[in-house]
Amino acid sequence: MSELLLRGARPWGAGHEADILVRAGVIERIEAGVEAADAEVIDLSDRLVLPGLVEAHCHLDKTLYGRDWVPHPAGDALADRIATERRLRGELGTPDVDAITALLERMVASGTSHVRSHTDIDPALGLSGVAAVEAAARRLDGRVTVEQVAFPQYGILTNPGTAELLEEALAGGVGTIGGIDPAGIDGDPVRHLDVVFGLAERHGAAIDIHLHDGGTLGTWQLELIAERTAVTGLGGRVAVSHAYGLGQAGEADQERLAVRLAEAGVAVVTGAVYSFPVPPVKRLRAAGVTVACGHDGIRDLWGPYGSGDMLDRAMHLAYRSTFRRDEDIELALHAATYGGARLLGLPAYGLTPGAPADLVVVDAATPAEAVVTRPARDLVLKDGRVVARSGRLAP
Q1: Please, which pLDDT band fits residue 373 given cuts at 50, 70 and 90?
Q2: What is the value of pTM for the model shown?
Q3: Please, is 283 exposed, middle or buried when counting C-beta atoms within 10 Å of its C-beta (0-12, 13-18, 19+)?
């Protein structure tokens, strides 16, 4: 049926109960007392409606989700995790299309409608990860949209052949180029950014750079990225993921950098994982910076944690940011919805007529309660199609 009428909904931000009419996969009306004789009617019984959740930073190609438990063997240092993954991923058969599919199914059942996944590009792997993620996404048959980032996990300058493979991935349709610790891993931030921004300009790609480097080394690189973004005119298409140095900086430096990032059009993506520094969400939003969030690794050789549920990730972001007031907790939910959508450059999104009907229905009094309690997803729609009910995939 091409028409669907969600009766008695409470759309986030509306401030009142309303009916939502969906026609041909798009939200047509959000108002009280909608009548549509030919529509299938679903009574939401005062349920809260959120826009489809956006997973803005994960690594689908690495996941072991749905497989037998694998004890985590790596040490605590970043170099230990990288080395462990390089040593064991072949033995464990990753990337694994079945595991990626299982994780995507979990994401859909939890209300995620869009995913940005950073896929490892390396001479030893070729583009196998890109192919595996594409194959898994096809299995979901339109229930979720997956965007890949060509990600040089092991460096670019220090890993000969990677730059050429990154270009091959972009030429083959991958829409975003990644980078990683231009100073800490590649040891030459200027040349690293030359490669990343050069590839983006040649292929019309977006940019999303992992920046684990902390302290003043990290904030200095943020300045370099902002400067390069402004010079190349790529504002609105560049993101920095993690940005630990920003989370460690003093308030004055955070304020200055927030303004600089906003002016340049550089977004910030955080996972709020473990005890790693979290960027100052309130300060960044106040300055006009796009803030998005994601799980980072999910049940892989980097760590055994991660649920695939973006309400769970929003809760971690709110908790790590010491948000207690409802309006502050909603900032974390915004990062998992509207912030992620803006990062991905979605042309239409949200609870508004004309946007695709990507919707999540939960039994919660307020958005803040939904973040804190992470209730079951009663109903999930993707492009107006019911893709999950009561936490399970729909046929």
Answers
A1: very high
A2: 0.97
A3: middle
